[in-house]
Amino acid sequence: EFKPLVFSGVQPTGNLHLGNYLGAIRKFVALQENNDCIYCVVDLHSITAQLVHEDLKGQIRSIAAAFIASGIDPNKHIVFNQSAVPQHAELAWIFNCVARIGWMNRMTQFKDKAGKDRENASLGLLAYPSLMAADILVYRATHVPVGDDQKQHLELTRDIAQKFNIDFMEHIRSAGYGVDMVVGEEPIHAYFPPVEPLIGGATPRVMSLRDGTKKMSKSDPSDLSRVNLMDDAETISKKIRKAKTDPDALPSEVDGLKGRPEADNLVGIYAALSDKTKEQVLAEFGGQQFSVFKPALVDLAVEVLSPITAEMRRLMGDTAHIDAILRDGGERARARAEKTMREVREIIGF
Ligand code: ADP
Ligand code: NA
User: Fold this and answer.
1) How far is residue 248 from each of residues 64, 67, 244, 253, measured CA to CA in Å?
2) Domain shared by 263 and 341, yes or no
3) CA-to-CA dists, residue 115 to 11, 112, 149, 280, angstroms
4) What is the CATH number of the domain that holds 31?
5) ipTM score for this prediction
6) Ligand located closest to 147 CA
């Protein structure tokens, strides 16, 4: 049996938004109760799409501040930045040799981020899922809370673990590591666990406020497309009031949201922020116009986000404190990651 362990990461690029909060960070907070958790600012990933950053250090600190302001306890759990633990990159190299080029070529995020000029995308952008697999498996983590945009990458993580386990099965056994388990129907002796994605929730994917068919994203050029965690109440209000909608009233049944992506998205956001189901939200607002629903959503969003924003601002003013948390988290993460890497090097035969 593998010991349950939660791992997840967020990139230090651009402003954190409501999608990151509802799709990821809020789950990180909830999982602390009953699990050992490792939460990482994945700075090595942030140079895959854009090499040079204006203030990478400041961005790293701001993600750490968001974690802590949202309620993650860096003393009971681990908060650190990826580049402080070189074992991630070491295992990623090994996984580059385990994974097949065809697996990487199928990743939809690579296709989206590389755009039309694929030949000119960085090699790191193509190999990104290998590093993500290493981030998780260097701790032999079993559970990964992420938004639904990461589902395909997590399936690849399972494929990499599976191929490593099978290719090295005799070495793993003779070195005295790993556990007997059944994957599908196959009994195997595994060193890396099969990772379980934790994707559920009312809104596994929060969509853009300007286009209900695109996900809310840090890289969207329109700032009106997302509510940022650092937005003040007035800005949140403006963005939600301007959010694209259709002219109809809200339906009273979830079925009535079909074909209305913008309405569906706003109802989903309301449900997630209030810990209700979409059914419950529509029981309250069905038949109402957006002129009634949007102000209610603004109030709710401000109520949930403003304490987090205030605490983030406070923490960002105390960089020595944030740096101390990251340093301490990095040391604890490194000790665990090195234990895995000693075993992996032995399994491979280095
Ligand atoms: P982005 O996709 O905005 O660049 P990251 O890749 O750093 O953000 O993602 C950080 C976490 O937030 C991941 O778990 C990702 O799945 C989640 N996430 C990002 N955007 C959304 C969204 N629009 N809805 C739900 N979850 C999201
Ligand atoms: Na993402």
Assistant:
1) 41, 38, 12, 14
2) no
3) 20, 5, 17, 40
4) 3.40.50.620
5) 0.94
6) 1
Q: Residue 19 Cα, ligand 2 centroid: separation in angstroms?
A: 10
Q: Would the annotation count 258 as a binding residue?
A: no
Residue 187's region, left for phi above 0, alpha for psi from -120 to 50, else beta, is beta
Active-site annotation holds for 163: no
Report d(CA 110, CA 77) in Å as an integer: 31
Ligand 1, atom 12, lies closest to the CA of 20
- If one residue of 10, 20, 226 were mutated to test the ligand 1 pocket, choosing by the most ligand atoms within 8 A of its CB, it would be 20
Are residues 179 and 280 both part of a single domain? no
One domain, residues 270 and 334: no
Question: 109 among the known binding-site residues?
Answer: no
Distance (Å) from CA 280 to ligand 1 centroid: 26
Q: Tens digits of per-residue pLDDT, 69-105?
A: 999 999 999 999 999 999 999 999 999 999 999 999 9
Q: Rounded to an integer, what distance in angstroms lies between the CA atom of residue 66 and that of residue 230?
A: 9
Quick one: what percent of the chain has pLDDT higher than 90?
A: 92
Q: What is the pTM of this model?
A: 0.94
Domain that residue 270 falls in: 223-315
Q: What is the pLDDT of residues 303-316, one digit of tens each?
A: 999 999 999 999 99
